Amino acid sequence: MKKQLIREYLMPVVKIGISRQVVIPKRLHDQLGLAVGDYISVELRGNQLVLTPQELVEKRLDEGLADLKHGRTVGPFKTAKAAIRALHARRK
């Protein structure tokens, strides 16, 4: 238990690989909900390198196109009421 408590407070240290690659520790990766193919912006603030997860339109567009391809969509609808009815019916 003592080791676990100490680990929670230690800052992870990682090694830079041959191609300047850096491995994000699993705990941090999971906390941020990152997945293969996600984008991260890289920024220099003073002497710190700051990595920030990014949502890119291209990724969301790819996900939407995959939904269309696999039939995970509803519609099109002529009115908003028709769309709402279909969503309520699908929820049941």
UniProtKB/TrEMBL annotation:
<dbReference type="InterPro" id="IPR037914">
    <property type="entry name" value="SpoVT-AbrB_sf"/>
</dbReference>
<dbReference type="Pfam" id="PF04014">
    <property type="entry name" value="MazE_antitoxin"/>
</dbReference>
<feature type="domain" description="SpoVT-AbrB">
    <location>
        <begin position="14"/>
        <end position="59"/>
    </location>
</feature>
<protein>
    <recommendedName>
        <fullName>SpoVT-AbrB domain-containing protein</fullName>
    </recommendedName>
</protein>
<dbReference type="GO" id="GO:0003677">
    <property type="term" value="F:DNA binding"/>
</dbReference>
<dbReference type="InterPro" id="IPR007159">
    <property type="entry name" value="SpoVT-AbrB_dom"/>
</dbReference>
